[in-house]
C-alpha cells in the first residue's frame, strides 16, 4: 500500500489594532493529500466495510479571524472560512468516484462567533456571561453518482455563565441551547441510504478550573 503524502500551502496577514485590543488575520490555503484511505462506496455492505486508496484530494479556501475587546470585560471572537474540497485524481481501478466530485463531510461555508462579558467592579465582580454560535451552510456529501447531495444547514447556539475567585473559575455552559437536531453523515450506495451521526440535544456542563 502506498503511504499517505500531502502538501500544505498557506499565506496570510495578521495585524493588531487599537493598541493591541483588536487582532485580525486573513489567510488562503491549499491542502493536498495523496493515497488517503476512503470508504469503498461499491463493495462495502452492512456487515463489513472496505477501504480503498482513492488517489488525490485538494481543499482550497480562505479564512478570516477577528478577536477584540468592545468594552472593558466585553470580548468577541469571530471566524469565517470558505472551503472548496474536491477529488482531483483517481488511482487505477477505483470505482464509484469521479474526478471533480466533492469530498464528503466538508462544509463550503463555516462561521462562528463567541461573546463574553465579565463584570469589572461591584459585589459580582468577576462574574460573567457568554454566548456564541456555529453556523455551517452549503454542506454536501457524496452519493456515488451525483456531484453531491446537500445537507440541511447546521446552526448551534451555546451560552454560559462563569465566576472567578482567586485562582478558581466555575463555569456552567449550556450547549445546543435551541435543542436543534444536528447531524453529519454520508450516503452509502450499497444500501441506498444515509448514515447519520447525530449530536447531543440540549445539555449542560459544569466545570471547575484552577490556575497555578
Automatic annotation (TrEMBL):
<keyword id="KW-0406">Ion transport</keyword>
<keyword id="KW-0410">Iron transport</keyword>
<keyword id="KW-0812">Transmembrane</keyword>
<feature type="domain" description="TonB-dependent receptor-like beta-barrel">
    <location>
        <begin position="2"/>
        <end position="177"/>
    </location>
</feature>
<dbReference type="InterPro" id="IPR010917">
    <property type="entry name" value="TonB_rcpt_CS"/>
</dbReference>
<keyword id="KW-0998">Cell outer membrane</keyword>
<keyword id="KW-0798">TonB box</keyword>
<dbReference type="InterPro" id="IPR039426">
    <property type="entry name" value="TonB-dep_rcpt-like"/>
</dbReference>
<keyword id="KW-0408">Iron</keyword>
<dbReference type="InterPro" id="IPR036942">
    <property type="entry name" value="Beta-barrel_TonB_sf"/>
</dbReference>
<dbReference type="InterPro" id="IPR000531">
    <property type="entry name" value="Beta-barrel_TonB"/>
</dbReference>
<dbReference type="Pfam" id="PF00593">
    <property type="entry name" value="TonB_dep_Rec_b-barrel"/>
</dbReference>
<keyword id="KW-0813">Transport</keyword>
<protein>
    <recommendedName>
        <fullName>TonB-dependent receptor-like beta-barrel domain-containing protein</fullName>
    </recommendedName>
</protein>
<keyword id="KW-1134">Transmembrane beta strand</keyword>
<keyword id="KW-0472">Membrane</keyword>
<keyword id="KW-0732">Signal</keyword>
<comment type="similarity">
    <text>Belongs to the TonB-dependent receptor family.</text>
</comment>
